[in-house]
Model the fold of this input.
Amino acid sequence: MPSTTSPVPRRSIAPVPKRSRPSTGSLKEAWPLNDDPDLESLRDAPEFQAVVRKMAALDEPLGSSTVAFTLPDKTLITEGVAHDPKSGDFFVSSIRHRKIVRVSKDGTVSDFIEPGRDGFYSVVALDVDPAMGALWASSHASRQMEGFRDADEGRSFVAELDLRTSKLRRKIDPPQLSPAAHLSDLAVGPKGDLAVADPYTGRLYLLPAPAEMLRVLVDVGPLGSPRGIAWSPDGKWLFVADYSQGIVRVDVHDGAVLVLEVPQDAVVTGIDGLVWADGSLIGIQNGVRPHRVARHRLDPFLERVEEVTVLERGNPNFDEPTLGVRVGSSLYYVANSQYRFVGDDGTLALDRLQPPVILRLPLPWIP
Done:
């Protein structure tokens, strides 16, 4: 069982450097202490070797994820995944081919929207609104996509698609006051409101149902690089994975931001995907090495992380895991986005790419 330590004092919120989504970097959790010449005098101490063993354990694979399905086209460069609870279909976004792939309940793979249809650029995040029979998708022009033109730079939107027919219902651009927006991760709330994150500018947007225009909920400053979004069940709070600060809570009413307190030994930066799971937040963490998925158990007031438990680490399918979706008592998530095999000029390292993998991870505390 993981140890639980006293949380650190609540941190003040200050501007942090902006980060581009495709450039994730990584924080190494463990390193070879025995090879460090500055620590040579400690090498024979039992206490030092105990630390060495603990460090080595952080690199050991851990977890129970299994392959839910793979996609045959290894050039997709996948990012987001969503699930329709009514049909059982899954949807996976393609950065490279500017499309959305549907995987039917029987395993059939087909294009939900064809490449570039309705003016789609790279398709990033996806979420299903079952009540409205809608699939929401974010899209922005990236150099990883086919057909990129310099004139497309900075263009971005979110779109609502009909789950049954795939017909475009509406396309919503960023507010006019946010011309440099890169709409990315998104999540539909329990009342049908849509939250959208911009990891480039640090803004967080809200589309209250049934509004037709996005509004800025959190402006530039408090958030460094917002990624995954998870709603509280009552729709009062948004939990956002800030890649450079950790997990933050945002008041949907007024946009007030609180950086959650965490145990002193917890690493909560570098989280990309974030999913609510019965009083916990599941973080898909590609900003640490080895990549991992962790449970962040919250206190009853949703103000701090009381315990962090690593659920999956060092899975052989991992190659920058990104976003996920909860389906019942399991997490389904993109295991290998493979961004590192796309050059700055958009060329692919075809000989190094693998078929995209969606993993299923049981969440044992959920009945």
User: Anything to note?
Assistant: The longest strand covers residues 305-313. Residues 69-362 form a domain with the Neuraminidase fold (CATH 2.120.10.30). The chain has one helix and 26 strands. The helical segments are 46-57.
